[in-house]
Design goal:
heterodimer, A: mainly alpha, Rna Polymerase Sigma Factor, Chain: A, Arc Repressor Mutant, subunit A, 2 domains, 64% helix, 0% strand, globular, disordered N terminus, B: alpha+beta, 3 domains, 5-stranded antiparallel β-sheet, 4-stranded antiparallel β-sheet, 6 helices, 9 strands, 30% helix
């Protein structure tokens, strides 16, 4: 029996409409994802003024990248968050004058010889369940890194935890979630084939 | 759960996905990027992006200001077919300028129009309101709470008083202080923290840093870093110049408790 909860939603077609230049698509996309991008920018910039500049850059990127969206690999919200995060990380690196030795690639390269691919996306509610099942420290540190937008060093300071412990908890937590997600994807593919 | 060490490449991919590769990590990743096929794997980056969207939504999203949305739509006009958008709107001078500033400016413009007919010529943008005007507008707007500061035993707060005016609807506020000890900005600054009942108490919202000049009552506009939903406590601490990400709460000088 097919696990319907893992099936990619078909109603998410805003980015495709944007890519085709359909009337109203840009506004609909902004209505749908504006709050997500704005919330992320507020957490990852030093001021609201900087957040304003950042979200305008991010949406220019989104309009340009919309045609590359692949619903088999991510949700639309995930794709939008991916672009937003890349832009915000770039801005942060430039602000700190750190050299960017490896440019983030334009497309998604998921799936190599050494790493299983996220070939099917998992529902947001399932991801949240997976996060909630992590040990408390892993869950808290991942939340601080991803939602609050703190660097690992800032998390170490804020929680009075050695930096190495912060890093290892975040790494283990994300590795565990990846393991579960790719496991879910495999199960779904197996179920779908049966 | 597996406790074996993760491969170095996997650690680097995770650090990169969370935006936290240090300079050494960047250098190591750059080496691997050229030689290791797995270094191009974006699975972790995509996973973090999906988690970001899900967790932010769970925590509650902040609405994008209309002025910002209008500016984005205006910029998008060039690249798409006719789009159903509002008339072009100029971007507000400051994103933190709350919506009530609209009627304040409209009222000021109307007064200027009525009282000063000689000035009925195209002019530049109206001046931004002063902090005192912002405070007055918040108070008269009806959505703001007014909370009196309570001094702690910290010597900087001896004889200090004042209040905080905060509107959750407008996401704006102003603090007033009288008698708070002047600070030397090269040594320390005051910093506001807003405790939000909907968030973890360990992580109050940073409300901005400010200075107090000797012998003057001061008004400070609150610069909340992120949205505040249910403010439960406002606290002023003394911190290093520029403020801190996390306060050790060693010197709390004033607090204002919401009901």
């Amino acid at each position: 029996m097919r696990d319907e909860s893992l099936v990619v939603k078909t109603e998410e077609r805003l980015l495709g409409s944007v890519a085709r230049g359909e009337p109203g698509a840009v506004k609909a996309c902004l209505d749908q994802y504006g709050s997500l991008v704005w919330s992320l920018a507020l957490r990852r910039t030093a001021s609201r003024e900087e957040a304003e500049d950042a979200v305008q850059e991010i949406f220019v990127d989104i309009w340009r990248s919309a045609e590359r969206y692949d619903p088999a690999k991510s949700s639309e919200a995930g794709f939008v968050a991916l672009i937003a995060r890349r832009r915000l990380i770039d801005r942060s690196r430039k602000a700190s004058r750190r050299p960017i030795l490896t440019q983030l690639p334009d497309g998604l390269q998921a799936g190599s010889d050494d790493h299983e691919a996220l070939e099917r996306r998992v529902e947001a509610s399932q991801l949240l369940e997976m996060v909630n099942e992590l040990p408390e420290k892993q869950r808290d540190f991942i939340h601080l890194a991803i939602v609050t937008g703190l660097s690992h060093t800032q998390i170490a300071e804020r929680t009075d935890t050695p930096l190495g412990t912060v890093k290892s908890n975040i790494r283990r937590g994300l590795a565990e979630i990846r393991r579960q997600v790719t496991g879910s994807a495999s199960r779904d593919q197996t179920a779908g084939a049966s | 759960m597996n406790d074996r060490p993760l491969p170095q490449l996997e650690e680097l991919l995770i650090d990169r996905a969370t935006g936290d590769l240090d300079a050494e990590g960047e250098a190591r990743f750059a080496e691997m990027f050229a030689t290791e096929p797995g270094a191009t794997d974006d699975t972790y980056e995509l996973l973090v992006a999906e988690m970001t969207a899900a967790m932010l939504e769970q925590d509650g999203l902040e609405s994008m200001p209309e002025s910002v949305a209008a500016a984005i739509l205006e910029g998008a006009q060039d690249r798409t077919a006719p789009v159903d958008i509002s008339p072009a709107t100029h971007r507000a001078p400051r994103a933190s300028w709350p919506t009530w500033s609209g009627w304040l400016l409209a009222a000021a413009a109307l007064i200027g129009w009525l009282v000063l007919p000689g000035l009925r010529t195209p002019a530049g943008p109206p001046p931004e309101p002063t902090v005192a005007q912002i405070r007055d507008a918040l108070v008269s707007g009806g959505s703001a709470v007014q909370l009196a500061w309570t001094a702690t035993e910290d010597p900087a707060a001896a004889g200090a008083s004042g209040e905080v005016v905060w509107s959750t609807a407008e996401q704006a506020g102003v603090m007033t202080f009288s008698g708070l000890e002047a600070n030397d900005p090269s040594i320390s600054q005051y910093q506001l923290w807003i405790f939000d009942a909907t968030r973890d108490d360990r992580f109050p919202v940073d409300g901005g840093v400010f200075d107090v000049v000797a012998g003057q009552d001061v008004l400070i506009e609150i610069q909340a870093k992120i949205g505040v939903r249910e403010p439960s406590l406002f606290a002023i601490t003394v911190e290093q110049p520029g403020g801190v990400v996390v306060s050790d709460r060693e010197r709390i000088v004033l607090v204002a408790q919401a009901d």
